[in-house]
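User: I'm putting together a teaching handout on how multi-component assemblies are represented. Below are the sequence lines for each component of a complex, exactly as they appear in our records. Could you produce the 3D structure of the whole assembly as structure tokens, so the students can see both representations side by side? Please keep the chain order the same as the input.
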Amino acid sequence: MTAITFYFQVHQPYRLRRYTFFDIGKRHEYFDDPENKRILERVAERCYLPMNAILLKEIERTKGKFRCAFSLSGTVLDQLEEWAPEALQSFVDLAETGSVEFLCETSHHSMSFMGDTDEWAEQIVNHRKRIRELFGKRPTTFRNTELVIDNHIARALEDLHFEALLGEGADPLLGARKPTEVYGVKGCEKLQLLLRSYEYSDDIAFRFSNKEWPEYPLLADTFAKWLDRVPAKAPFIGLFMDYETFGEHQWAETGILDFMEFLPRFVLQNERFEFRTPKQVARKHAAAEKLDIPRPISWADAERDLSAWLGNHMQRAAHEAVYELGPDVKRAAKLGHTKLLDDWRKLTTSDHTYYMATKHRSDNEVHEYFSPYDTPHDAFITFMNVVEDLSAEVQRALAGGEGVTLQPQAKPASRVSGRKR
Amino acid sequence: MLGWEYPPEITGGLGTACEGLTRALTRAGIDVLFVAPRTSARSESEHLELLGCDQVPIPRRRLRYRPRSASPSPANESIEWLGVPSSLRPYQTARSYHQHLRELAEAKRNWPEPKVEAYWEESGPGSPHAFLGGYGPTLFLEVERYARAVCEIAARRDFDVIHAHDWMTFPAALRVAERTGKPLVCHVHASEFDRRGAHADPRVGAIERLALAHADRVVAVSHYTADLVSRRYEIDPAKIAVVHNAIDPERTRSSSSRKPVSGPLVLFLGRMTSQKGPAYFLEAASQVAAARHDVHFAICGDGDELAATIEGAARLGIARRVSFTGALDREHVARMYAMADLYVMPSVSEPFGLTSLEAMAADVPVIVSRQSGAAEVLRQSLKVDFWDTVDLANKILGVLRFPALYRQLVEEGREEVGQLRWETSAASVAGLYEELAA
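Assistant: Of course. Below is the structure of the complete assembly, with chains in the same order as your input.
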């Protein structure tokens, strides 16, 4: 049997408001709440709610044979709690079926492993606790921000007691090896590495709605037949993608939701296939081989490295500016200035430096699609202005000055119930 | 090829563009006969009293363009250069503008509408009703005289395509096209709406509308301009080809020059007309000056807005922080680039904006307005809406405050501008010629 392993990434950042030099020292609200709310509500309506309904129906129809996994960032959880609690409830409903695995990641979808490993661990531990509270199970599978993996990251995750790690089945990493095997990582004892089969994943995530693509329009039964080309011995096929693929990046009019609705039945018609979550795959199969991953590998852009976030002068300067602030922010938080820590963590979200990328190739379109800014330079200036104000606020807090918020950030009164009401 | 500027006789980007394009075209094996209203023989061309256009003798002498560099370029061998004495001057200085205004008032009082014998009748379609309002009598007579001269030349020469740059050469081009039946390419470097906005001269508008409608193909220097002329003149967008301007890397080498000020220097360089947005530059400068006491500004150029801008600097209390240089020649422009830490082009409406490319080539970061053609091709620049002076000030400060941003703009800007070659533009134009001559 070959397992079909779907993992969907759910994430929204806190985008910054227009924040100029002249706002520094005057305004300490950095995030564009109306815009973030608008986007979150739109995505919930177009993607999260209808897709969750489809997946729930398929799980019920197949009596639990359809399975998949989700990873939700802490920032999107915050936004769902505040602006679309019914959508969050629909994720909880999926968790209750027992067929859906919820993974762990960093709470703020951050690149903290590149800047501050203590902060990275803190974000992971916080998020693991939150996922368990919300969805009922302690996560044992980890997906790092943008699927970034290397030897050190894997080792640290093993120390944090994770059983499995997701990664990109990148060519430079695999060489002649297959992404459909379960691997280990050099330096780790037991941690299992499950890789993304990017050809199949991107058929759905990117090419599906491309009318120039020779295979357009792709039908669910065709795709199921393609999956059958994978050798019968293969333990699993990792179909990892952004959840917003369904209905947001590719609108419902493209047929992407219908595709996903019909895929499970065509896959299950073939007896060699079953749906399994990452945890199930990792527990069932022994690692074929331990991979050596000396340099970080991600799932982004053609390079599959960190250049999408840390590729140019601006990105590196912004990254350094944020993480330099970390120790002082934490000292201030200990004095009760928790809003500063809250704001700072929202600035660690990798999207902020992603908007600053200046690549010239086709990946630029992807960057621009996601960016709320006209240019990467706008993103940088805005971000740096905010960091400067936050830095000044932190210094004032440490000096015992006025002008900081002491009460924790207001949360909506009715929080979505955890598992089992 | 019909154009009204060619170096060293230039007042704006047009002459520079014509030079870059024709050089690359000749390198691509295309023979160019360039007819300009005046040549570097300044003395023959600056007589405003030359109104009797019928009597203009057409010189038959051939002038060879001499580049400033010592070694003659082989590319110049195939450009033939014909001069027509004329008083044509598209752009004005502050002084000439006021003189012009006085003359205009004088002319209105004393002169009847000069006889231009409605060249439309000669050239076919068009409406004599378009001759309204006041723009000074000499300019239009010069256009007419130029047109007649061009017709004379066209009758004696063989060519395959007529390529006309901007409205002043369009009447000539239309007439030649009609007489010879040769295909016509109208190249729009700036439309009347760019130059004068809401105060567009209806006569110029009529010429542009007519010529663009009759042209076999229209070349626009940017999508911005293509969109503008297609909307304003109801030109089929399919007929318009966008050919971006480029830059000749050797011509913009930066000479070293010591800054006369200790702090950062922010540069404005362009004709001082409202179209170029000096008022917005000044407004942003005053905000920057309030935030930082070490920043200086240089405003380089001459034009009808110069006086108002100087007064504005005084009114905003930043006169000591702003230097006005007047118009600069090429050598001094290069020196300004070498001194500047940032170049700002806050144009209200800018078909292209070659200076932003020159600044980038000279390793100066640039901020351009979104209302410019250059904004389409320069990824490695900061962009602002010209009216948003808070954002402009914010971005000026951003470049000056964040070394990473400065470095990013300089390094990637140099690389980007190095790829904007006239060869690419010429290849597009040559493609049009081939299509039309076939």
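A couple of points students might notice: Chain A has two domains: 2-291, 308-398. The interface with chain B takes residues 20-22, 312-314, 316-318, 358, 360, 374-375, 377-378, 380-381, 384-385 of chain A (CB under 8 Å).
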